[in-house]
TrEMBL record:
The keyword Methyltransferase applies. Residues 50-150 form the Methyltransferase type domain. It holds the Pfam family Methyltransf_11. Keywords: Methyltransferase, Transferase. This is Class I SAM-dependent methyltransferase. GO terms for biological process: methylation. One of its GO terms (molecular function) is S-adenosylmethionine-dependent methyltransferase activity.
Length: 265
């Protein structure tokens, strides 16, 4: 089991190397930490990690401190920022800019079978392009015996469908409120949120070589400090169907048939 890394230690590291968006890091730290331990506690395989959508290397740092060798993928412009480059150098994280995940041509720089673990956390819900070309690259890069880790919001979360019936009945729709679309920074809107069954189906359609190794709905990552909200979270998290988050691990035991999905558009 890897040594625990605290929020304060991580923030001190980023401050030492030029700073980072600390509010975002603090809001997501528990997700980063719990995702790592959910996987690392059972994993006996290789330590080469490809972190898709690495942003400011927040999650990458935790995995690096946990003994994994990280290649971080993000838009090239972000990796030109001095603080990101300094943090990457200090943590021995390789940076790979990818201008377009839809075509994923920049991922061609990575050799076949060069990753044991692919982190695809809080990305699935943002994809607006046909993903087949991207997954062909990931399939090529992922070594046999490797895994893809997917975290994504649960469509049936109590914070969504189950928690807003009055909004639904009032004809005010679903998904993000228009107030948030107009006025709240959220690092890209959720184009589609999935059920657990849909995530399994998604990878089954991509390739019969993909095998669901773990699939679970997980409780709230970080409890509210507001008493009544914390109480609601505690009660609703008891019911698996309406837990707000999902953790899915997709294994690739052997490479036989490849990505078989074909786009009709």
């Amino acid at each position: 089991m890897a040594m625990e890394v605290s929020r304060e230690e991580c923030l001190a590291f980023f401050r030492e190397h030029g700073g980072t968006p600390e509010v975002y890091f603090s809001d997501h730290f528990e997700r980063f930490r719990k995702t790592f331990h959910e996987f690392d506690g059972d994993w006996k395989g290789g330590r080469r990690v490809l972190d898709i959508g690495a942003h400011w290397l927040h999650q990458a740092l935790i995995w690096s401190r946990g003994g994994y060798a990280i290649t971080a993928v993000e838009f090239p412009a972000l990796f030109l920022e001095e603080n990101v480059r300094r943090a990457a150098s200090a943590a021995n994280i390789r940076l790979l800019g990818c201008a377009d995940l839809g075509s994923a041509t920049d991922l061609s720089a990575l050799p076949d079978d060069s990753a044991d673990v692919v982190l695809f956390t809080e990305i699935l819900e943002h994809i607006t392009f046909n993903p087949i070309a991207f997954w062909k690259q990931i399939y090529r890069i992922l070594a046999p015996g490797g895994r893809i880790i997917v975290t994504t919001p649960n469509y049936y979360s109590w914070r969504g469908r189950a928690w807003r019936p009055l909004r639904f009945l009032a004809g005010r729709g679903g998904g993000l409120p228009v107030e948030d679309v107009i006025g709240v920074g959220n690092y890209a809107h959720h184009w589609k949120e999935y059920s657990l069954g849909e995530v399994k189906r998604y990878f089954g359609l991509l390739s019969p070589d993909f095998v669901v190794a773990k699939a679970k709905r997980v409780p709230t990552y970080q409890r509210s400090r507001v008493g009544w909200k914390r109480a609601v979270q505690t009660v609703m998290d008891v019911m698996p169907l309406t837990r707000p988050n999902m953790h899915v691990e997709i294994a690739l035991p052997q490479k036989r048939q490849g990505i078989v999905a074909v786009a009709s558009y």
